[in-house]
Every structure is written in C-alpha cells, then in structure tokens.
Amino acid sequence: MAPPYNASVTLGRALSVAVAAAVVGAGGVAAVWWFRPPEELARFAAGPPPELWAARERQERVWAATGSGRKVRYTYRPLERISRELAVAVVAGEDLGYFSHRGIDPTAIREAVAQWLAGKRLRGASTITQQLARTLFLSNDRTVTRKLSEARLAFWLDRRLGKRRVLELYLNLVEFGPGIYGAEAAARHYYGRGADELDTDTAAGLAAAIPSPAADNPATRSRRWQWRTRTIAGRMARATWLWERLAALGVGRLVKHGEAD
Fold first, then answer.
1. Whole-number Å distance between alpha carbons of 159 and 226
2. Cα(first)–Cα(last) distance of the chain, in Å?
C-alpha cells in the first residue's frame, strides 16, 4: 500500500516552501500569500473545466500568429470513463508519490530556490498537481517566481479539490502531442479508440509522451518514447498498491490486453 499521509510532515513541507519564498525577498508577506486560498480554484471543482486554460491559450496563440489554421484537439471525459490502465500508467510515469504527498515536492522547490540563488537555470521535476497548476494558470517560464506560484497553487488544488478531482483534471488537460489535450483526444488520435478502451500497452505509450509530447509520442516512436514506454509498463506491473488505490477512487474499468482491437 502507499505510505500513510502524515499531517505534521505536510505542514512542515508547506512551511518550508513559505520560508523559501521569504528567502527570495517576500518576507512576512509570503506566508500570508501562501496560506490564502486562490479564488480561481472554485471554477474547477466539478464537471468539465472552463474551455480556455493557460496551456491551451498559449498553443492557440502560437498557431494564430503563424497562420497555421490548426485546432486544439480536446474532449472532456469523467474519470469513470478513462481506463484504469491509463491512470496507473500516468501516476507511475509522472508521480509515484502522488498519494503520499499533498500536492508539492518540497525537495524540488528547495532545489529550485538554490538554483536561482546560484544563478543557474531552473529544472523541471514537478508533481502531477504542480503540472496541473502550470497547465491551468501559469506560463512555462523557468523562474523561481513561477515555481513558487506553481507550488502554492498545487498545495491548494490538493487541499480544495482532492486527489480524485486533481487526477481527473490532469488526465483531461495534460498534453499528449502538439495541441492534443487529454486522454480522450489522445486515445482517438493515436490509437483510434476511446480513453475507456486503453489497455496496458496503449496506456503506457500515452503516458510516455507526457514529458516531451511534441518530440516523443506514439506517432514519432522515438527512442526516448520507446524507453519510457517500457519503463512505465514495468512500473505498472510492480505497483500493485496503485491499482488498488485507483480502483478505490472509482477510476474507470480495467481493459484486458487486446480487448479494444
């Protein structure tokens, strides 16, 4: 089973991020800012999210500027209509600690602050919840300000919406290819089936596209995509507790290998 949630550890993690914000000059205001819930989260509490979110807006703006005429592909599906295999694959590939943290990776935040203080370029390494915060609200700029905003939003997304809803939003809004957002659009585009028909192999293939969706996806079949697919499939086989946890959340049905072919 997943490690139990420890409230004192969670509070310590949240405080560590607030302290990190203070280090970069926000002082006492940082704590007030951190512990004030963002009002915009209420719009994402249930059902399909608003039609426009930060990542989609960026993509459409780029295409409009180039006159490409391309359109974003996106269809919302509730969590019970997304195969459990895909949920397992995504958590296994992106954030195995998803059910044991409260939205943020405090170690990564501290490292980001340290990198900024040292004048280095910030790296990625975000939880699923932090990735969702960036997708919904933020730019892709690699700055310490954005990283701290991402952490604060993730903390409150987890606290206000909960694990099930955060995962539902993530699976519907994450990019799986150029302008291909969410499980349903990706499953249709790459495999000609619905998100509720993805088996272990196809689910691992989609999850493997998330780190670099434009370059490494089921269409490009790059070496990195193939390696990630194998790695994720291996993690899925070993993480029996994860299957149980997602079943308890009511995440879609299991799809037998080859069932949708």
1. 35
2. 32
| Burial group, residue 84, by CB count within 10 angstroms (0-12, 13-18, 19+) | buried
Cα 237–Cα 242–Cα 246 angle in degrees, nearest 5: 125
pLDDT tens digit sequence for 146-187? 778 888 899 999 999 999 999 999 999 999 999 999 999 999
C-alpha distances out from residue 177 to 104, 107, 166, 219, Å? 25, 29, 21, 9
Q: Residue 4 class from Cβ within 10 Å (0-12 exposed, 13-18 middle, 19+ buried)?
A: exposed
d(CA 106, CA 152): 11
Q: What is the pTM assigned to this prediction?
A: 0.82
C-alpha 244/C-alpha 239 separation (Å) is 9
Helices (H), 3-98: 7-21, 28-34, 54-66, 84-94
CB atoms within 10 A of CB 160: 15
- Integer CA distances (angstroms), 6 to 63, 104, 109, in order: 45, 14, 19
Pair of tokens at residue 198 = 């993805």
The structural domains of the chain, ordered by start, are 7-32+74-248 (1.10.3810.10)
Look at residue 85 and tell me whether its pLDDT is greater than 70: yes
Pairing of strands 73-74, 180-181: parallel
Query: What pLDDT, on a 0 to 100 scale, did the predictor assign at position 9?
Result: 42
